[in-house]
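Hello again, I could really use a second opinion on something today. I've been staring at a protein lately and its backbone has me curious. Can you walk me through what the tokens say about the fold? Take your time with it, there's no hurry, and the full record follows here:
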Amino acid sequence: MTLYLIGLGLQDQKDITLKGLETVRRCSKIYAESYTSLLQCSFEDLERFYGKQIIVANRQMSEQGDLKIIEEAKHQDVAFLIIGDPFSATTHVELFRLAKEQQVEVKVIHNASILTSVGIVGLQLYKYGRIASIPFIEDHPHLETPYRLLQQNQYLDMHTLFLLDLKPEEKRFMTIPQALEILEGIELRKKENLIKSTMIVVGCARLGWDNYKIKAGTIDEVKKFDFGPPPHCLIIPSKLHFVEDEMIQMWK
């Protein structure tokens, strides 16, 4: 009996790999997380395409129900479906670790994630530094972590990818302008001249979807751009190689 952690990819029910689809169809129980990102399709679309009933797991159910899921995998094949790649969010490392601890066999089926799809922007992937999340400011009124991480990456000449907060159950998804305003607000408090109005940033929406949008420009230019529906992410480049600069010019 096995626990399968299966990446769904980024867009819809057809982004699952063939290996992932075959595995889902032979599993006895299927869970799908609903909290790390957003698909273009519904969970009902997944059920119809896979031909299996799916239990939708919110963050609380996943994090507090880990042991229940692992216990089930001792007696039957269980699939846990994850938007993007199983390990693009650290949330699911704990599920993997606990299953191993309980001596339950775990198999991982990888897929595309935001960490690789940002390659379309044209910035070299190996030049990205630590990734930061920007949470809703009302939940963290004294927020500094993304600002400090950007500071560290800039010092090291590394690009910074910001993943923006989302609360699907509340239908709340942070936008690129909101993320920039949060960073500007921290700058206003810190007064360290890290966030400048003239700096070039890159906003990305729905990477991995057919209708993705990318816009590069100054903070003010990007804040005025209509990116459309979520999910959004934000990139602040460091020093650009001339090939990277040519690609960035494409998105202006």
Notes: The domain at 115-250 is CATH 3.30.950.10 (Methyltransferase, Cobalt-precorrin-4 Transmethylase; Domain 2). DSSP finds ten helices and twelve strands in the chain. The first helix runs from residue 18 to 26.
